[in-house]
Amino acid sequence: MAFPSQAKYVIIGAGIHGLSTAWHLAEGLKASGKGSGEDILIVDKTGIAAGASGIACGVIRNNYFQPAMRELMAHSVDVWESDPKAFSYHAVGYMQISAESMRENITTIYEQQKAIGYESVFVEGADKTDRYMKDIFHDWQATGVTSVLHEKRGGYANNTAAMYGLADKAEALGVRILTGVTVTGFVTDDGSKAVKAVETDRGNIACDHVVVALGPWVKSIWDMLDLPKVVNIKGADGAMHKDVPMWRYWALEEGTLGIDPEIQKTNDGKMPPVIHIDSSAPLLSDVDGSLITDKLWGIYYKPDFNFGGIQGGAMPYPVKKDADEVQVDPYGVESPEFIVDDNFAHMWCSALAFCQKRFEGQIKHYKNEPSGGIGCFTPDSFPVFDNFRDNVYVIADSNHGYKMIGVGKLVAEELLGEQSALLKPFRFARYEAGELHPVSNSPFPWS
Length: 447
Ligand SMILES: Cc1cc2nc3c(=O)[nH]c(=O)nc-3n(C[C@H](O)[C@H](O)[C@H](O)COP(=O)(O)OP(=O)(O)OC[C@H]3O[C@@H](n4cnc5c(N)ncnc54)[C@H](O)[C@@H]3O)c2cc1C
Hints:
Blueprint: E1 6-12, H1 16-32, E2 40-44, E3 59-60, H2 67-82, E4 89-90, E5 94-98, H3 103-115, E6 120-124, H4 126-136, E7 147-151, E8 155-157, H5 159-172, E9 176-179, E10 183-188, E11 195-200, E12 203-212, H6 218-224, E13 230-234, E14 240-245, E15 248-252, E16 254-257, E17 274-279, E18 283-284, E19 291-293, E20 297-304, E21 309-314, E22 317-318, H7 342-355, E23 373-377, E24 384-388, E25 392-396, H8 407-415, H9 430-433
Bound molecules: flavin-adenine dinucleotide.
């Protein structure tokens, strides 16, 4: 394809958000008679699924303490369910098995799931939790947990396959995807904030609208757009917290136990739900019985043929560097800095064995290959979906996003002039206005 000098809509980033926005925008343009997919150009400096979307565990769940997040996730699950084959989506469900300190929060989640018609089962009490789990997995043996929220919808999707499914849908409607093109800046007219062209390493592309969907790289483009490096946040106490850094990074730790995924089938021979457990019981080593932690800990796991084993992760850790100093590239498994180490393998495999007897003594099968990656987080760890500089839409998902395939649909509607009630709670102005999302007791920054 000749390098285009113009496109009505330039979308930067060919991950879940860029691709989903392009697909839905193309549909919306066609349906409204306002244009077609040919008005949309996606540029990516590497390729489709080269970012976080291509390494994500791919878990899709609704379990959020924040009502606005839950409603948004329910909307996204509808989109996943709209074409499971194209999105390589496995609707196996999701289980949140929790320590007593989280029970109250999870009760609220369950009640609100009921209120929005999102099907789930909630079981309370240590004995009942144990029985419920043993009915599914005969060898369940975890302690330090007193409730189960079993979401009947959700599950997981194969990370890269889903991105290609989205790209196919967008391209079928005429969207162009240009890879190997790095955005380096923006051109504006004197006296105007609006972007009139996107600068790239291959030339400028004149445009009417820009969509920024950059996952872990969002800060680089944010800086190019001269958007604020710090924000003022009105806390729940009414006090204004001044100059809070806009971005910080967390490192996600994930890995794969290289055993036959079929081993994790349920008692009735089905593929199981994704398991997420947060336990208050001391976690002991499955290798030598030593104490790994006596604080609340959490892991998640699922059998996954794509990863070739039991795949999952544990609690992420904050990257203790100023955001300006964090090296995002090379990203993911190529990173010399942000891949998991032996401590992760030891903790995660021991936690698997803590949960189910079938995993005892299996650590020797842990796949010793680079995995994990970093995510870029907002000040409150919730997304920012908003318009800046008059014609730049920023999708900054604060690393919640693989599951959020529906956000692109809502963003496309906003680009076509319709305000989305589901996206409204995620505007940038919420910080200064103190319209923050409630915070849960989960040890994970995204629950
Ligand atoms: C290890 C890990 C596991 C995860 N697991 C889950 C999970 O199970 N469930 C879940 O819901 N979420 C998960 N997430 C979060 C999720 O992956 C991200 O929130 C989501 O994929 C972000 O999508 P995106 O489209 O915004 O960005 P990305 O998928 O990162 O895409 C951004 C693209 O921008 C391109 N790019 C960057 N800079 C430029 C530039 N200057 N010019 C042009 N192109 C550029 C990159 O090449 C990349 O392809 C996980 C994240 C990680 C790191």
